[in-house]
Amino acid sequence: MAVTFSDLHTEAGLKSLDDFLSSKTYISGDQLTKDDIKVYAAVLAKPGDSYPNASRWYDSVSASLAPSRFPGKAVGVSVCGKGAPVEAAPAKAPAADDDDDLDLFGDETEDDKKAAEEREAAKKASGKKKESGKSSVLLDVKPWDDETDMKKLEEAVRGVEMPGLFWGASKLVPVGYGIKKLQIMLTIVDDLVSVDTLIEEHLTVEPINEFVQSCDIVAFNKI
């Protein structure tokens, strides 16, 4: 059964997450799943000592992201509530409506509907009957230095538009010496978007390379 968390940028939201994790290692049980990645992306920073269960979980997910191995079976999760601004680089709202719910790669979102439309269009154009799959990707976007305008960097990244590409939640993560990187979620239609092509031909070329030094794939999961 899917679990819903609200307003994870607030103390009340973190308290709810901490209580939920009091008897669990991860969101959906004892193994890491994509549910943990969705919730992790909505938590702007490591929870403090007042939330020991959430803090322990956050450290576990952070440590597990590098190898990108998710052996557990996900049961589905959504995160609700208007997200707080990402410090100096607030993420653009994915929809034009004043919707207070943030649903990270959940079912029946506007992005999912648009992705379905893209798949149908691609099928008709190519004559294929096979439905294309989708993947969720967690991407690290690194600036040149601590003087890089991270707001303009995020705007440039989100300004990249391709059929089958849908940008999601984001946050700034400190990397040292006053430098922060942009960590951003995206959903892709597999037959329409190559992440390598996105990085090499769109995110690290002019004019975006004025802000972006490099991009790394942190996690890549089939949906």
UniProtKB/TrEMBL annotation:
GO cellular component, as recorded: cytosol; eukaryotic translation elongation factor 1 complex
Region (Disordered): 88-129
Residues annotated as domain Translation elongation factor EF1B beta/delta subunit guanine nucleotide exchange: 134-223
Keywords assigned by UniProt, alphabetized: Elongation factor, Protein biosynthesis
Classification via InterPro entries: eEF-1beta-like_sf, EF1B_bsu/dsu, EF1B_bsu/dsu_GNE, Glutathione-S-Trfase_C_sf, Transl_elong_EF1B/ribsomal_bS6, Transl_elong_EF1B_B/D_CS
Biased composition, class Acidic residues, residue ranges: 96-110
A Pfam family assignment: EF1_GNE
Basic and acidic residues bias (residue ranges): 111-129
Record field: transmembrane: none
GO molecular function, one term: translation elongation factor activity
Record family assignment: Belongs to the EF-1-beta/EF-1-delta family.
Function according to Swiss-Prot or TrEMBL: EF-1-beta and EF-1-delta stimulate the exchange of GDP bound to EF-1-alpha to GTP.
Self-association and partners: EF-1 is composed of 4 subunits: alpha, beta (1B-alpha=beta'), delta (1B-beta), and gamma (1B-gamma).
Name by which UniProt lists this protein: Translation elongation factor EF1B beta/delta subunit guanine nucleotide exchange domain-containing protein
